[in-house]
Amino acid sequence: DAEITQSPRHKITETGRQVTLACHQTWNHNNMFWYRQDLGHGLRLIHYSYGVQDTNKGEVSDGYSVSRSNTEDLPLTLESAASSQTSVYFCASSLGTSGSYNEQFFGPGTRLTVL
Amino acid sequence: GQNIDQPTEMTATEGAIVQINCTYQTSGFNGLFWYQQHAGEAPTFLSYNVLDGLEEKGRFSSFLSRSKGYSYLLLKELQMKDSASYLCAVRDEESGGYQKVTFGTGTKLQVIP
């Protein structure tokens, strides 16, 4: 069955370290998204991609980067982790853009703690 | 940009009906989604509306009024397992035809016996 996975599921790191969160989907979806979820803020979009080599900044992109070298993967990198980046991170994917409605399928989430 | 409002918390009784409201302001509206999220889990898709009116799917229904910037999710015959957060999300069409989805902060529903 097609799925979307994230790794690691839990991560503890120190301030200033570089961290990469992996996201892999086997839906063959064009669109992939990274969100963070914090109490009182809901899901906030960090970066998104509408296809290979396409990346775009979301509303809270500072301190994060992504790259899309293939359809299946969109890794999220924290260049220099900060305590403010302690959060739960969700990756999601959807089939396309215009025309039909495209529900997003979410990965199980990664809980990141920056000490 | 977008502004999405929904109540923070609601409580309802098992077997009853509950309505969760969502209001939004957006410039390029192109659809509204409802997601369910149980504590510690990922959001899962419940419903989608792009035209005015009611969409029914089993115990769950979703309504949209584009002119009022308003939607609601109706849950009937509440069960304890319906205790979860319900996220309203609005899709905007951006320049170039791209479409971006923005989520509200969610409504935490507690179902009590």
What can you see in these coordinates?
The complex is a heterodimer of chains A (115) and B (113). Helices cover 0% and strands 50% of the residues of chain A. Chain A has 115 residues and is mostly beta strands. In chain A, the strands form two sheets. In chain A, strands 2, 4, 5, 6, 9, 10 and 11 form a seven-stranded mixed beta sheet that branches. Chain A has a four-stranded antiparallel beta sheet with strand order 1-3-8-7, with no helix packed on it. Chain B has strands spanning 3-5, 9-13, 18-25, 29-37, 44-49, 53-57, 60-65, 70-75, 84-93, 99-103, 107-112. In chain B, a hairpin with a 5-residue loop joins β9 and β10. Chain B is globular. The termini of chain B are far apart. At the A-B interface, β5 and β10 of A face β5, β9 and β10 of B.
Summary tags:
heterodimer; A: mainly beta; 7-stranded mixed β-sheet; 4-stranded antiparallel β-sheet; 50% strand; globular; B: 113 residues; 5-stranded antiparallel β-sheet; 11 strands
Summary, kept brief:
The complex is a heterodimer of chains A (115) and B (113). By secondary structure, chain A is mainly beta. Helix content of chain A is 0%, strand content 50%.
End-to-end Cα distance of chain B: 40 Å
Structural class of chain B: mainly beta
Q: Helix/strand/pairing class of chain A, anyone?
A: mainly beta
Total number of helices of chain A:
0
The tally of beta strands of chain A, per DSSP, is: 11
Q: Can you give the helix content of chain B as a percent range?
A: under 10%
Query: How many distinct helices of chain B?
Result: 0
Radius of gyration of chain A: 13 Å
What portion of the residues of chain A fall into strands of 2 or more residues?
over 45%
Level of helix content of chain A? under 10%
% residues in beta strands of chain B: over 45%
